[in-house]
Amino acid sequence: MANVTQNRPLSPHLQVYKLIPTMVMSIVHRITGGALYFGTLLVAWWLIAAATGQGYFELVNWIMGSIIGRLVLLGYTWALLHHMLGGFRHFIWDLGYGFDPAVSTKMAKATLVGSLCLTALVWIVGIVIRLI
């Protein structure tokens, strides 16, 4: 019996591919989708604490108000907004637009910049409202 696997080409590996913005944003979109599961657990924890009683709610608020808690909430905010903008990008593709490489690269970069700017805006508005 002949060995047919000797004539098969090897599958390209990660060293062969050049990372382009659309690839990176696709990977980050998947990662942020996974991170949203964790963030949703935090929101549920906060709501359960609110329903449980004042003492437990104050404990959860203290944890979320700590530096580490705020960093986690900042990351959750960014993941939520980045995933949302990535979803809009995919929706545009579903409509049949934006497949040109130059356009899809601009959309990928805009997703990253937009998510960072929106995260900063949300946190600035939140801080201002808290100070009022």
Automatic annotation (TrEMBL):
Matches recorded under PROSITE patterns: SDH_CYT_1
UniProt cross-references to Gene3D superfamilies, sorted A to Z: Fumarate reductase/succinate dehydrogenase, transmembrane subunit
Free-text cofactor note: The heme is bound between the two transmembrane subunits.
GO molecular function: electron transfer activity; metal ion binding
InterPro entries per UniProt: SQR/QFR_C/D (IPR034804), Succ_DH_cyt_bsu_CS (IPR018495), Succ_DH_cytb556 (IPR014314), SuccDH_FuR_B_TM-su (IPR000701)
Positions of heme binding: H83
Keywords: Heme, Iron, Membrane, Metal-binding, Transmembrane, Transmembrane helix
Cofactor: heme
Subcellular location per the Swiss-Prot or TrEMBL entry: Membrane
GO cellular component: membrane
Transmembrane intervals: 27-48, 60-81, 110-129
Membrane-protein topology: Multi-pass membrane protein
GO biological process annotation, one example: tricarboxylic acid cycle
Pfam families, sorted: Sdh_cyt
Functional description taken from the UniProt entry: Membrane-anchoring subunit of succinate dehydrogenase (SDH).
Family: Belongs to the cytochrome b560 family.
NCBIfam families referenced in this protein's UniProt entry, alphabetically: succ_dehyd_cytB
Quaternary structure, from the entry: Part of an enzyme complex containing four subunits: a flavoprotein, an iron-sulfur protein, plus two membrane-anchoring proteins, SdhC and SdhD. The complex can form homotrimers.
Protein's UniProt name: Succinate dehydrogenase cytochrome b556 subunit
